[in-house]
Write a structure and sequence with these properties.
The chain has 4 helices and 13 strands. It is an alpha+beta fold. The chain has a single domain, classed as tt1808, chain A (Alpha-Beta Complex), CATH 3.90.1570.10. It is globular.
Length: 188
């Protein structure tokens, strides 16, 4: 969940790095957005995807991580995002607390308060930066929107929760079947 700080002040990347409080923020067009704690369902889905990707990537060049600062553009002093899950195949771009580069694969899990950012702002930023594959997971509706970069644009496919192939990781699938069944059992 993301909430704006209700301030007119614009921050730079350096000022963003110097914030010293217990909150987590994303910096979008110079505006700080405070990130709320994720819901239990969000955390369950995220943990399961991290486990599956971690198992698949064990011993391989790429690695999976979550909720770290990502500066997509070197010359951009006003934007730093924190994707829910990301796969990185070039570990040389870590600069302490920030990854300054383009992850190969990003997953965002929506919440009602921030879904517009995942579907619009981040989609455009990730496309412009060259993120090869970007998934938007909608836990409210058991849907996954898979964006694959083709040239300068994303081609979009959408799926119900189930087993879904990861295009940028040959042979890798993510299985969300148990989350779909859990919703059906609860009548949600």
């Amino acid at each position: 969940m993301i909430n704006s700080l209700k301030t007119e002040r614009r921050y730079t990347y350096q000022e963003f790095l110097e914030i010293d409080d217990e909150n987590r923020y994303e910096l979008i067009d110079g505006i700080l957005y405070m990130m709320s704690a994720p819901s239990p369902r969000h955390q369950s889905i995220s943990s399961e995807i991290l486990r599956q990707l971690g198992n698949f990537l064990d011993g391989k060049k790429c690695s999976v991580t979550h909720e770290i600062n990502v500066k997509l553009f070197a010359d951009d002093d006003a934007n730093t995002v924190i994707p829910d899950i990301l796969v990185i195949c070039d570990s040389t771009k870590f600069t302490g607390i920030t990854y300054e580069g383009v992850p190969d694969f990003i997953i965002e899990i929506t919440s009602p308060s921030n879904s517009y950012r995942d579907y619009l702002d981040k989609l455009n930023d990730y496309r412009r930066a060259g993120v090869k594959e970007y998934w938007i997971i909608d836990p409210e509706n058991n849907k996954v929107f898979v964006n694959i970069l083709e040239g300068n644009n994303y081609s979009l496919s959408h799926y119900d929760f189930g087993e879904i192939s990861v295009a940028v990781l040959a042979g890798c699938t993510i299985n969300l079947t148990r989350f779909s069944q859990t919703m059906a059992q609860r009548g949600q």
